[in-house]
Write a structure and sequence with these properties.
mainly alpha
Amino acid sequence: MKAALNKTSVLNTLRRLRPAELLRLLLGVLLPLVLVGLLGEDVLEQQRFAFETPLMLWLHAHSTPFLDQAAVALATIGGYQVIAPLSAALAYLLYRSSFIASRFFVVAVLGAALMNALMKVVFHRPRPLLWPRLVPESGASFPSGHSMYSAAFVTALILLAWPTRLRWPALLLGTLFTLVVGWSRVDLGVHYPTDVLAGWLSGAAWVLGVYSLLRPTRRPTSMNPAAVNPATVNPAAANPGPQPATDRS
């Protein structure tokens, strides 16, 4: 009986979703999580992806000192050393204007960091050792923390900026930032490509899921009684008609 009620509640919730919300749930949350699950299953079984080592060696062979220095810089910019204080500052600024938006941003970014730490413990994939590293890295490899942090951070900002005129600059610049951070992890040889892909998918899916629950940019649909125009409620109130003459005698 209880299971049937829960199933009915889920179905009713899905029926109330608008097409855009349902599409975001399916393509932005469920599909990425399925892909991460498939990758994670192979990682747990210690299976190798045939394309990864040749791709990494090709990138390393075509790298330059300038690209290596750019990758090292992105390792700092896209890491917690910069993302964490920047997220705290943005959360404070959002809090001053909207508690709901600030709450969403904190849950989205902090939750992604905690989920990444948990996933590293579960999968515990060793990092690649294909050439001497330019930056010291320790800990598990799957999924990439830098890729997941940057994807979560950027996705949260894009969603908050979407109702404004900044939506397209946020989308283009944020996507570019996320891509180059992911590239830097492979170029430095500290992550496999599938680590980066799983980080992107997990970070974006987490933030989109949190957004679907908290809806920080949803416009209120209920009417404020204090702001109701009496003319729209009672037309007679706006046009009371002729008033009876008063006897002043």
